[in-house]
Amino acid sequence: MAGKPVGPTTPGPRKSSVGLHAIAESTRYSLAEMGPKRSLQTLLKVNHVDGFDCPSCAWGDPDPEHRKTAEFCENGAKAVAWEATRKRVGTAFFAEHSLADLRQRDGHWLEAQGRLARPMHLAPGATHYTPVSWEDAIALTADRLRALDDPDRAVFYTSGRTSNEAAFLYQLLARRFGTNNLPDCSNMCHESSGDALSATIGVGKGLITYADITDHADLIMIVGQNPGTCHPRMLTALEDAKRRGARIIAVNPLPEAGFGRYHNPQTARGLAGPGTKIADRWLPVRVNGDLALFAGLNRALVDREDAEPGSALDHEFIDRYCEGFEAAAAAWRALDWSHLETLTGLSRRLIEDCAADVLAADSVVVCWAMGLTQHRNAVATIREIVDFLLLRGNVGRPGAGPAPIRGHSNVQGDRTVGIWEKMPDTFLDKLRDEFGFDPPRVHGLDTVDSIRAMRDGRVDVFIGLGGNFAAATPDTEVTEAALANCGLTVHIATKLNRSHLCHGTEALLLPCLGRTERDRQATGEQFVTVEDTMAMVHASHGRLLPGSPHLRSEVAIVADLGHALFGEDLGWRGMRDDYAVIRRHIEHVIPGFHAYEQRVRQPGGFMLPRAPRDSRTFPTPTGRAVFTVNPPTACEVPPGHLLLTTVRSHDQFNTTVYGLDDRYRGIKGGRRVVLLNGDDLRDLHLHDGDLVDLVSVNPDGERRAPGFRAVRYPAPRGCAASYYPETNVLVALDATAEISNTPTTKSVVIRVEPSAGSGAATAL
Ligand SMILES: Nc1nc2c(c(=O)[nH]1)N[C@H]1C(S)=C(S)[C@@H](COP(=O)(O)OP(=O)(O)OC[C@H]3O[C@@H](n4cnc5c(=O)[nH]c(N)nc54)[C@H](O)[C@@H]3O)O[C@H]1N2
Ligand SMILES: Nc1nc2c(c(=O)[nH]1)N[C@H]1C(S)=C(S)[C@@H](COP(=O)(O)OP(=O)(O)OC[C@H]3O[C@@H](n4cnc5c(=O)[nH]c(N)nc54)[C@H](O)[C@@H]3O)O[C@H]1N2
Ligand code: SF4
Ligand SMILES: [Mo]
To answer: Which candidate among 123, 126, 657, 688 keeps its CA 20 to 30 Å from the CA of 271?
Structure first.
């Protein structure tokens, strides 16, 4: 990954976001990748009823009648341009560049070379990828899978850009083959949210709609989420909320620009005027201090109720719908404020002020993302947030509820249609009834366990439907070696990335169509469907001609593999020829999809049911929402060490790096930076601009990421922030969250040392 330290910058958080600068940036990037005609043709189709779903994040859309001509943000535009680029990586490219050469390049360079244009094969011992026909590639994969003595020796990874149709087919393939080894990016993303929500409210998804934000919520808390960069059009919804008087509280160690003034590029007020200030209150919580913060808020609410019964809690709701309240309340009453202050880095006063905002609000939404999910106590933290919402009946009514904001554009849909290593028996029974085979019942491997299994020689075939497994996962060296330990690695992808260079004995690179492209099959042009973070399922129609005649759709690739393995037993060809056939199967197997074909063709699509929201029905074992007791904890940091959180820059989508700037944080020209509090810099005898190594401290030994520039930044004392994926070398494979097994990439205990050979003053 990008090896150079950064050039001169004016670091420091910006106080406003979007505006003309964002328009200029999207235009520059789009023109460079697509040229003027293609740019217009493509961008005006993003998020429109007759166009395609933005391939970037999972934020939802306004009602069709409220959509603007340009219904996308800067990062959506970059994602589209990235996919619709005119550059190609074909036979000549692979003849010119050996694997050894490509391995020297960073991820930014690899993806910037353009779209993969032909299926490629790496023979055992070969130095270069060479072209292969689709027929041979599929036959080879089927042969290697058939040769395994146990279906659990194969792993089927999915990244969240895959459509419902491709994902459903892919899980069908894995289960028909005989394994539940279906790890996905969600294991590293919102797994902790799913675990906490299923255990407490009985459904592993968020409960809000778009209108809950724009029209109904009185108070919106945004916790461990950076909407200005990662869900930029959420700012438009938040602006609508602000204009009708809602309050917004940001809980984040960093003062992110998206919480400052929002300059909505669609309005005169936004472009030329003062914009809208998004956050009314900012709680600069210590990294991993959120469990203690919500425990403190819950304590404050219970204290208030004790002082003045009937003033703070919704007892009618609690008595009728919940269980476990008394035990939880007793635990909160016993909390020690000074302990909470230490864990959060916030004063009792500030937490109580925040509780006063909560008491003044009839309806509260709590949004969160990776700032909460990637810690050891992540599941407990989110359960504590559920407690917080249950206390005042903020579940199952307009303008209220938990809102995990999903990452990849269809990561939620992929889970809904069966991409999970532990789908429940109810789903597997339906799959059996629909297709007439018995799916395996033993739970499969998640992402971290897949790495362990490959490392230990228990898995021999790795197939990736999208994603960048080698770079996105922790313990980079271990993971790369694990992939190399396989007999066969197969990647279905749009662009070249690091994972394709960490190959097994033999490897295949299968280029597929992207969201933006027309998908023509035997029965005519197809569309696919996706589910956003508000559980809206809608259609996506590619509009551009395919980037190369050799590209195949993900559905076609998976169906062909199914056909090669099992003949026509489950009707693979029919599903490839007409995606409506796949949707019919989904309708039969998964609740909530009745009249799928018809409803998804309506403008805007349809909403999937979520019982707690729809009818205050909680599908838990007792039929009640569950209060849990979550003793406040935070990651312990030895003296002289810091707690590092790994975040995204404004110029990347996960492992895809569009450029080397992070405009909103004032970083320019490089990504190897570590943001540190000025007092910590002083205590470490370092200066802004020094070149340092980051050294993580783990039970199984230290790991080093060399050559980062120290940047003075308003991070809380004792905390540091740096970019992912460059810092994944620091995260031990065994460092995972309790219950969810999500890598704890947001709390890495590190030491910061001057880089070898760089006197403190020599850096830059
Ligand atoms: N442009 C762009 N958009 C994206 C992505 C992208 O890479 N680029 N990725 C997509 C994906 S897959 C996902 S999952 C989402 C991710 O969306 P986010 O979760 O918003 O992204 P991160 O950069 O991981 O940042 C998390 C935020 O949490 C804060 N944070 C870090 N540690 C803590 C903590 O301990 N407590 C609290 N309260 N806050 C903390 C960080 O300062 C940062 O503001 O975005 C999606 N959208
Ligand atoms: N340290 C640290 N690590 C993290 C995180 C973090 O915050 N910190 N976040 C985690 C999170 S939230 C996530 S979601 C994961 C992301 O993990 P992944 O989903 O595995 O990674 P991406 O970077 O999104 O994958 C990018 C690749 O997907 C392929 N691709 C793009 N579009 C398509 C398509 O339409 N079809 C196909 N078949 N392929 C396509 C391209 O080849 C591209 O190179 O990373 C996790 N890792
Ligand atoms: S907010 Fe997300 S889905 Fe919407 S246009 Fe921006 S990147 Fe795309
Ligand atoms: Mo994610």
So the answer is: 657
For residue 187, how far is its CA from the centre of ligand 4 (angstroms)?
9
Q: Where do the H-state alpha helices sit in 104-206?
A: 107-112, 134-146, 164-177, 191-201
Ligand 1 atom closest to residue 189's alpha carbon, by position in its atom list: 14
Residue 472 CB–ligand 2 contact under 6 Å: yes
**How many whole angstroms from 409 Cα to the centroid of ligand 4?**
9
Please report, for the chain, the start and end positions of each structural domain, with discontinuous segments joined by +: 88-186+410-602, 191-404, 642-763
Question: Which among 668, 666, 686 has a CA at the least distance from the CA of 677?
Answer: 686
Residues 547, 88 contacting (CB under 8 angstroms): yes
Backbone region of residue 396 per phi and psi (left: phi > 0; alpha: psi in -120 to 50; beta: other values): left
Is CATH 3.40.50.11240 correct for 642-763?
no
Rounded Cα gap, residues 40 and 337, in angstroms = 56
- Cβ–ligand 2 contact at 466 (below 6 Å): yes
Here the contacts of 573-582 (C-beta below 8 Å, separation 24 or greater) are: 575/169, 576/521, 576/522, 577/521, 577/522, 577/523, 578/521, 578/522, 578/523, 578/526, 579/165, 579/521, 579/526, 579/527, 579/528, 579/555, 582/165, 582/168, 582/169, 582/555
Contact 212, 240 (CB under 8 A): no
Q: Decide whether any atom of ligand 3 lies within 6 Å of the 57 Cβ.
A: yes
CA 65 to each of CA 216, 421, 542, 725: distance values in angstroms, whole numbers, following the listed order? 19, 39, 21, 39
CA–CA distance, 693 with 706 (Å, rounded to integer): 4
* CATH architecture assigned to 88-186+410-602: 3-Layer(aba) Sandwich (3.40)
Is the CB of 492 within 6 Å of ligand 2?
Answer: yes
Would you say residue 761 has pLDDT above 60?
no
Cα–ligand 4 centroid distance for 393 (angstroms): 29
Q: Which of 73-82, 141-150, 446-455 has the lowest mean pLDDT?
A: 73-82
Q: Whose CA is nearest to atom 2 of ligand 3?
A: 57
What is the pLDDT, as a whole number, of residue 67? 77
> For residue 762, is pLDDT > 50?
no
User: Does ligand 2 come within 6 angstroms of the Cβ of 646?
Assistant: yes
pLDDT greater than 50 at residue 8? no
List the residue whose alpha carbon is closest to atom 25 of ligand 2: 467
Q: Give the pair of three-digit tokens for residue 379.
A: 């599941």
* 759 pLDDT above the threshold of 60: no
Does residue 309 come out as left (phi exceeding 0), alpha (psi in the -120 to 50 range) or beta?
A: beta
Atom 19 (ligand 1) nearest CA: 370
Ligand with smallest separation from the Cα of 472: 2
With vertex at residue 195, the alpha carbon angle to CA 194 and CA 201, rounded to the nearest 5 degrees, is 80
CA of 159 to the centre of ligand 4 (A): 9
**b/e per residue 55-78 (b: at least 16 CB within 10 A):** bbbbbbbbeeeeeeebbbbbbbbb
Three-state DSSP state, 536: strand
Number of H helices, E strands in the chain: 30, 31
Check: CB of residue 297 under 8 Å from CB of residue 388. Answer: yes
CA 232 / ligand 3 centre spacing (Å): 6
Average pLDDT, whole number, for the chain? 95
Instruction: Identify the nearest ligand to the CA of 375 by its number.
Output: 1
**Same topology between domain 88-186+410-602 and domain 191-404:** no
User: Residues 20, 22, 25, 26: is their CA dihedral positive or negative?
Assistant: negative
Chain centroid to CA 733: 19
Does residue 59 have its Cβ closer than 6 Å to ligand 3? yes
CATH 3.40.228.10 given to domain 191-404: yes
Most ligand 3 atoms within 8 A of CB, residue of 233, 515, 652 to mutate: 233
Q: Which of 76, 78, 8 is nearest to 658 (CA)?
A: 78
Residue pLDDT, tens place only, 602-658: 999 999 999 999 999 999 999 999 999 999 999 999 999 999 999 999 999 999 999
